[in-house]
Amino acid sequence: MISTWLEFLLCGCAIGFSGYFLSVFGDQLAQKTKMGHSFIGLTLIAAVTSFPELGSGIGAITLANSSDLAAGGIFGSCMFNVFILCILDLLHRKKSIYQYTSATQLPLGILGILFLGYSGFIVSLSYSPLQFLHLLGAWLSLPLFIAYIVFLTNYSNQEVAANKQDKESQNPASPKLATMILGFVISCLFVVASGLYLPVVGEKLVHEMAWSESFFGTLLLAISTSLPELAVTLSSLSIGAIDMALANIWGSNLFNLAILWIFDLLMQGSIFAQISTTHLISIMTSIVMSGLAMIGIYLKPKKNLGLYLSWPNFLMVILYFLTLFSLF
Q: Which superfamily, per CATH, for 37-47+67-162+213-327?
């Protein structure tokens, strides 16, 4: 059992370490191509920091033959990503992080809620007379992938137009483009390889600890694969780029839900038809937590609870741990 835990910890460390460098090289590439900072957080960095979820999900399906681990990793990661806001608020002692966020974060969070709501609806079909729709297989998750691509395309065009007149000079000390690409690819390979092996180790832990796959996927697997997001958001906080941190969180959640279509392509039938309905708990929790974050962005509450947390994030902490307890 100890050796299994050691394997799990090593995989988690490898994902966090390589994911950090993946974000660094991704950010450098984005600056080299003169993309906007919001675009970097929402698209490039969000996508590359979500590679562990893609890798672990593929590994859960192809190697561990566990759709529940794959789904738990996705929905649990979405829940933990929003929980990162509480960590940021706790570390930002002076004022609530919401007092530094712009209203441009609202549509991103709302889109994430819509994605989660659609996913929850498809999962709930198992209890409805419409469960025959699961026979559609990958067609059920395809709307998420299409909506994600369409949104990124439109957002990219807006950012390019907004930064068209940007005259920012290149940093002469920055690495060459070839070095950036090489570092990005190598980091990506390490992240995906670790992510592929992580669910295999997780399957061993599930049996050794007598846990449910839904609980393991939602807790340990989700947190481990979200280490790159945590590293990026903490780095953004340290330089005062809170909007970039939030954009990374919303972008990661959108990417996570969009890749459910890829999981469907690797399976016989729809992944929604083969997972436990207990995942509805983490989905609904993610929706409520995202809604609380939207309220925080709109109202910009102060820290008045004596816990270094604004009241929306205080409620998020309670809800997050109640959800983990219910899944256990």
A: NCX, central ion-binding region (1.20.1420.30)
Determine which of 56-60, 96-100, 288-292 has the lowest per-residue pLDDT on average.
Answer: 56-60
Average pLDDT over residues 17-25: 75
Tell me what percent of the residues of the chain surpass a pLDDT of 70.
80
Instruction: Decide: 326 and 292 in contact? Cβ < 8 Å.
Output: no
What is residue 169's predicted lDDT score, i.e. its pLDDT?
Answer: 46
218: pLDDT strictly greater than 80: no
**Would you say 56 and 199 are in contact if contact means Cβ atoms under 8 Å apart?**
yes
- Residue 162, pLDDT score: 59
Which pLDDT belongs to residue 114? 95
Best CA proximity match to 202, nearest among 188, 218, 220: 220
Better-scored residue on pLDDT, 62 or 235: 62
Q: What are the structural domain ranges in the chain? A: 37-47+67-162+213-327
Could you tell me if 59 and 197 are in contact, meaning their C-beta atoms sit under 8 angstroms apart? yes
Least confidently predicted of 35-39, 116-120, 174-178, 280-284: 35-39
What pLDDT, on a 0 to 100 scale, did the predictor assign at position 76?
A: 85
In whole angstroms, how far apart are CA 183 and each of 119, 188, 301?
A: 35, 8, 41
Residues with Cβ < 8 Å from 99, sequence gap 6 or more?
A: 300, 302
Assigned token pair, 266: 């690797």
Show Cβ contacts of residue 191 under 8 Å, excluding neighbours closer than 6 positions.
15, 18, 19, 22, 48, 51, 52, 55, 228
